[in-house]
Amino acid sequence: MTTPSDIPPIAHDTAPVTMPADTASRIAAYGKQGRGPADKAVPALEAQHVSKYFGRVIALEDVSLSVRPGEVNCLLGDNGAGKSTLIKMLSGVYKPDKGTMFIDGQEITLESPRDALDRGIATVYQDLAVLPLMSISRNFFIGSEPTSGWGPFKQFDVDAAGRIASEQMLEIGIRVRDPGQLVGTLSGGERQTLAIARAEYFGAKVLILDEPTSALGVKEAAIVLRHVIRARAKGLGVIFITHNVQHALPVGDRFTILSHGRLAGEFVRGEVGQDELLRLMGGGEELSQLAHELDQLMGADASTVEAVATGAEPELTSEDAPISEIEAAEATDADGGSSAGA
Question: What is the end-to-end Cα distance of the chain in Å, rounded?
Fold first, then answer.
């Protein structure tokens, strides 16, 4: 049986590693961010009263969110609540149609995802965090590859990349025997952890995690949640997006709830429990009613069940739900005035 001590060290050369100056400065600051009192610190990233419209469709309206160094802010909401739109604004994919964004207290406009990354905002998406057909070392340094040699003879430094990637993965508890191993052979939890470790290594100040545990089992989700706490302890601000309340409650310092594209509530740790969060997300009362209805149907005969299943009236969307493009056009034609997104 192979033991950790039997694993041979990874060979590497002593050629100089070159990389962009801004990347080198962020790496030099890694682990030195320092965790301050989250309730008094200036937010590392803040969005104030932001809105986003797609034509006449209201995707997000008058939403505020912030995260401070050494804090985990859990962004909660059911499917379609507007979570994805908000994080795309925070990560530079979309520009808000209304509202203001700040980094370290200074008003900014994010021009692109690369601009956000250069400012220390790293986003780990649920499905696009890593490339499964590339190696661990390639994934770790994608876009910021270390090189050796000079002039026209520069090339990707495979040995240095493998050594650093293996060291960083080992630091978070995953031993990599071969950094050339394809990422597709890793478990879901290990892939997410690789993406988080990569963001931390390159000096991220704010870590945005988009549903990192949604497709994971209990043990794999536990790996990711432990590293959320680890990032918090290093002084990073973490925005943890999820619709799983059971994953949010153990790690969150603050909780921001979205419903139908609008802010449904903000709470600090200890102020709210699981039932209240579910209710604010729009699922608590519905789940209670559904459980009561199904309990009654379990004891009913087949004809009654069939009648209930086929005779239910279709439900309309709630009055405060975002207006559809067709409804907005009809409303505009009726009043001859403003559109829903104006």
Answer: 68
pTM comes to 0.70
Tokens of 72: 């985990």
Per-residue burial over 267-283, b = 16 or more CB atoms within 10 Å of its CB, e = otherwise = beeeebeeebbbbbbbb
Domains and CATH numbers, the chain: 26-284 (3.40.50.300), 286-335 (no CATH)
Q: What is the pLDDT along the chain (342 residues), one digit of tens a residue?
A: 545 455 454 444 444 444 445 544 544 444 444 444 445 678 999 999 999 998 888 889 999 999 999 999 999 888 778 888 999 999 999 999 999 999 999 999 999 988 998 899 998 887 666 888 888 888 888 877 888 878 788 888 888 888 888 888 887 777 888 888 888 888 777 888 888 888 888 888 999 998 888 777 788 788 888 888 988 998 999 999 988 888 888 899 999 988 888 888 888 888 877 777 777 776 556 666 777 777 777 877 777 767 766 665 555 444 545 554 555 555 555 555 444 444
| Rounded distance between C-alpha atoms, residue 232 and residue 121, angstroms | 14
